[in-house]
Hints:
Chain A has helices at 8-20, 23-30, 34-48, 64-81, 83-87, 110-120, 133-142, 203-210, 228-236, 284-295, and strands spanning 53-55, 60-62, 98-103, 126-131, 147-151, 159-174, 197-198, 224-225, 242-245, 258-262, 269-277. By secondary structure, chain A is an alpha/beta fold. In chain A, strands 3, 4, 5, 6, 9, 10 and 11 form a 7-stranded mixed beta sheet that branches. In chain A, β1 and β2 form a beta hairpin. The two termini of chain A are 48 Å apart. The structure holds a DNA duplex.
Amino acid sequence: MIPSWLTLRDMEYVVAVAKHEHFGRAATECCVSQPSLSTQIRKIESYLGAVLFERNNRRVSTTMAGRRIAEQAALILDEAGKIPNLLGHMAVPRFESLNLGFISSASSFIPFVLTDLKKAFRNIPLSLREGTTDDLVKQLKAGALDAVIAADTVKDVALKSTSLFFEPFVLAAPKGHPILRKSNLKPSDLRAAEMVLLEEGHCLRDQAIHICPKNRRGNPRTFHATSIETLRHLVASGAGYTLLPKLAANGKPMSNLITYVDFESSKIGRELVILCRAQAADQDPFSLLNRTLLKAIPE
Amino acid sequence: MIPSWLTLRDMEYVVAVAKHEHFGRAATECCVSQPSLSTQIRKIESYLGAVLFERNNRRVSTTMAGRRIAEQAALILDEAGKIPNLLGHMAVPRFESLNLGFISSASSFIPFVLTDLKKAFRNIPLSLREGTTDDLVKQLKAGALDAVIAADTVKDVALKSTSLFFEPFVLAAPKGHPILRKSNLKPSDLRAAEMVLLEEGHCLRDQAIHICPKNRRGNPRTFHATSIETLRHLVASGAGYTLLPKLAANGKPMSNLITYVDFESSKIGRELVILCRAQAADQDPFSLLNRTLLKAIPE
DNA sequence: TGGAATCATAGCTGTACCCTATCACTGATT
DNA sequence: AATCAGTGATAGGGTACAGCTATGATTCCA
């Protein structure tokens, strides 16, 4: 009968304790806390119905049974360790690590994709970075990033872009601000001089300015937020109104201070895309990445 | 590097699917549902970064990678299967299975001990039986039961009894019953003629009658409950009052119909004990059993 | 006697796995 | 052609359990 309650992790524990004869140090080696390891060893012992380690509060000693089990466990771990090698070239090419860039204004997209990403790329170190489009594109081309989520403003032959989804903009204004009296909100209702925006370099700033062409020459207020979060705080404290991507307005954060209003037309917004280096775009991991991100789109 | 996220169970899955090339049948063999198995295989594949099985909705075929992994998995399972044998005589003597008897009136004790029992005797088939003292003692002596939880009324040299705890009795009366007017409830307040009891053979019945000596000759009502549960129903429907062990009154079940009252003296009650065959009493598993039960005592 | 070292216990939390129900697809049967 | 049976995938929800921190109990040593 196969003891399917035994995990390879359990075997590491047994081997480690047998090696150190010390729970604390064994726990450190296994990267767990001492209580966790103690509990697990106890569990194993109670399953096996045998005492593997004699512990008398001052010294841990491995019993005969413990020694034998530990040896066998080491053997099994060894065999299990060979599994990844068995694949060799048969394994689909994968990312060594997955480094994703998000423009600041798309960071609200992260929570939606994170779970699925971790699932799809189990075992692969995942790092997310936030920044401006230019900054991220530079890093992407340099190879420091594998893919970037950005607005579809980038034209670069070295990059391939895959459409992700259209994200409408939403007006975020301090509660009671005059602009809120308008019904059927249109871009032309916005006055750049009344707006607070992200600082230079963030595409959301440019989009916000250009969305209402008549107002292009008004000077936006001199507050310069570097993240959506501070932008919201500025609005909340009455510094002016702003445009937010729909996802950033999700759940109406700070709704006691900020009012969120949809535009009359649902066409007001931006297209988000995935960017990756053109020559890498056809590789298997990228199609998995694209599929994963597309699947995670909210609504 | 050791893939400690792989479990032996996972390996069984891979081996089974490789063997049947059919998820449904493999799932049956592994005693899991087909979706569970599908998900796990998927998980393994995403960890390994390789496709182990080609499935095109009509047929499952094992890839080269899948075949190799399955072979190695089978080897590992084989090695793991040897573990229990390694113990041989070194294993502490254990129950093959643990068969516990509870007198009906102590069945409320079960939920308190169940979790700990399962923990202490992992892997060992556990069966609980309810019955009268005589019945259970007979089975215990015949070897059909390993231990019995009963009141301390049993005197039998072939059995050894270990004190468990003292459980007070509680009056359970239909809401509004005259007896509830008494404050400082004493055994002498009880009238056998007004009581409903378990049927002959249950020690709780005898205890209830004998607890109020003055009333021994009154005839209890002719309802005969065979379990605490029906006894409560009888009380709830107004058939009379009864005595319940404290644990059976725990959480005041049916409290819209039944009122529970403690006795003035906390001495009114019974001692619960663990019985086991005298010659077996010193064996290791029994001391573990005793310790486990003692630890699980409520309050 | 007090402090350091060490394993055990308690209580809580997050997550991975499992289940049921349902979907989506395919090939066969009428 | 249309329906049905067979199959794997997906969704949603519940639960068991390994993990954590904090604390306890015991022993050794100063």
